[in-house]
Amino acid sequence: MPYTEIKKSLFYEGCKRIIDVISALILLIIFSPIILLVSLMIKIDTPGPILADTPERVGKNGKLFKMFKFRSMVQNAHEILRENPKFSTLLEEYKKGSYKLKNDPRVTSVGRFIRKYSLDELPQFLNILMGDMSLVGPRAYYPDELREQQKKYPYTKDSVKVVLSIRPGLTGQWQVSGRSEINFDKRIEMDAHYVKKRSIIYDLYIIAKTPWAMISGKGAL
What we know:
The protein has one domain. The protein is mainly alpha-helical. Helix 1 packs antiparallel against helix 5 (124-130). The strands form two sheets. Strands 1-2 form a two-stranded antiparallel sheet. It has a two-stranded parallel ribbon with strand order 3-4. 52% of the residues lie in helices and 5% in strands.
């Protein structure tokens, strides 16, 4: 996918990567008991893998990558939504709702809990260490989500190009500002604003707001 680069200093890029790696390592250690507990809960709750088998996301420079997430839905949830005729109405609602669903029947009981408090995102520390993601950045979008939403909101195309120029983040401006309560057009504008204004201070501000966003569960689906 095409992208528009918004250049920042090598000092910023270097510092950001160092912060990403050190933070991911420390947080992996801190959250390791929770990661083990969530893994056990998922395994006991429903059959299927611990990690979600989801389609690839669009990363830096439009390249696709595999995002690690705890499985919060029934097995083969994405295939069920897109291929099972019984879910055709739900699929349309999914697309109209900026690729989010309220009261999604595919979400498991454990999944509902870990999604509310963003615990399903913890495996993304591995994506940060691998260089696919950053601690702070835009949301990682699905390819079909970007295509469909740009048809719905054609004026967002320039913002999408800006967003795709950097690594997506584990947390970000939209994640700490209401998450699923924000439609795609507003969300992508917030992400583009972050890309243009990003700095170490701005990143630290977003990181500071993240724990409350997780605890409150505001906008989680």
